[in-house]
Specification:
alpha+beta, Deoxyribonuclease I, Chain A, four-stranded mixed sheet, 11 strands, globular
Length: 202
């Protein structure tokens, strides 16, 4: 079983800590985005579960001085220690992947945290889709599941880009196919709105 969380501020440690350990143990793999961890606090990932191996990325570096604004950063994977799996770090802090060896083949997971949907990020979003495409081509197996915060609502510009990307690469937005059209994964307390930003692409 697979579980993924978005916007988990492990820097202040509340949401995932509130998840009962016995529930976390149900999942072979857990994907996190927006952990808000710095390079110096990535070890917090190992506190989440005793039965999972943890690995993550971070952009914030406290040795570079005072960090202004909201903490930001990036992706992490927790993989059950019993799995024959290997985590692959990408040069980009927003993408991390996991390869799991099966009896006769392998399964590859890619965990992403994509740029926020706005006009100034349009070209950057296309660039990230290209990075995902390159990573998929470099993998040994055609069995790929891409999960995480795509920041792509079905009806916004980035949602259109994601749909075009899937069409070109013969992929499907699995959650969009299997869930009701009024589904959502994010609630804005400030604006009182709901958004469907997180997806599973296979």
């Amino acid at each position: 079983m697979v579980l993924f969380f978005t916007h988990i501020p492990l820097a202040v440690n509340h949401t995932i800590k509130a998840t009962p350990p016995e529930r976390l143990q149900q999942y072979h793999t857990i994907f996190l985005q927006e952990t808000w961890l710095a390079k110096q606090t990535l070890d917090k990932l190992t506190d989440i579960s005793d039965i999972h191996f943890a690995c993550g990325t971070a952009e914030v570096d406290y040795t570079k001085g005072i960090t202004s604004g909201r903490p930001y950063g990036w992706t992490a994977i927790l993989s059950n220690k019993k799995l024959n799996a290997k985590i692959f770090m990408n040069q980009d802090q927003s993408i991390i992947s996991l390869g799991v060896c099966l009896d006769s083949s392998s399964l590859n997971f890619i965990n992403v945290y994509m740029p926020y949907c706005c006009d100034s990020n349009y070209d950057e979003y296309i660039n990230y889709l290209s990075k995902i495409s390159t990573l998929c081509n470099d993998l040994d197996s055609p069995n790929v599941l891409i999960v995480g915060n795509f920041n792509a609502c079905p009806n916004n510009n980035f949602g259109v880009l994601l749909s075009q990307f899937c069409l070109e690469h013969e992929l499907k937005i699995s959650d969009k196919i299997n869930l009701p059209a009024d589904s959502f994964t994010y609630v804005s307390d400030t604006h009182g709105t709901c958004s469907w930003l997180d997806h599973a692409v296979s």
